[in-house]
Amino acid sequence: MIDITKLTKYIEANFVDEESTEEKGENLFSLNSNPLIDFARKIAWRGNARPFSGMSPLKHPGFKNIEKKLKTPGSEDFISRLIFYINEKNMTHPQVYTAAGMTPDCFSKIMSGKTKTPKKETIVSLALALELNYDEAIDLLSSAGQTLCGFKQDVIFEFCFKTGPYSIDEVNEALVHFHFEPIGGRQ
């Protein structure tokens, strides 16, 4: 069971209010944006620098090196990392999708690559099902170009990975308590 009092204190200490960041011109993330650009904006804002004045980061000479490094064969994609963790945790596919609150069809689409980029909440539900710790969950998220940021829902996920393992039902109780939709298809 998640201790809501501890979670509330953790949220108060760690979350970034989305509305206040937009008021300050700190709109760091958008739905269909490039994760590299989002990360650069976030870092630049925290350092009190104004990002990208004068030159697009995509045209910066160093960007090509970063892009090339991210696309090298050594860097694993999401499906490879997911399979790695399924094997590492010695779980079967039905155990994973059941614990994640997914249908077999949805899980099959992810594993076959038919779902190009799973939503963050989907990846989090898989990480919870696999009982990943915080570092492992971040690794799985980053393999899909996602991360946890300082917004309240992500801080709840972070707390759960750092203090868990928790079932998806326990996490959903916490999400509902803080007025978020449950994840993993369980309503």
CATH architecture annotation name of the domain at 76-177: Orthogonal Bundle
Oligomer classification: single chain
Mean model confidence by pLDDT: 80
* CATH class membership of the domain at 76-177: Mainly Alpha
- What share of residues is helical? 55-70%
Shape: globular
Unreliable segments (pLDDT under 50, ≥5 consecutive)? 21-31
The radius of gyration over CA amounts to 18 Å
Structural class: mainly alpha
Strand content: under 5%
Summarize this entry quickly.
This protein has 187 residues and is mostly helical. The protein is 58% helix and 0% strand. GO terms for molecular function: DNA binding.
Report on the structure:
With 187 residues, this protein is an all-alpha fold. The protein has a domain of 102 residues: 434 Repressor (Amino-terminal Domain). The chain is 58% helix and 0% strand. It contains 11 helices and no strands. α6 crosses α8. The longest helix is centred in the first third of the chain and has 12 residues. The radius of gyration is 18 Å and the shape is globular. One of its GO terms (molecular function) is DNA binding. InterPro entries: Lambda_DNA-bd_dom_sf (IPR010982).
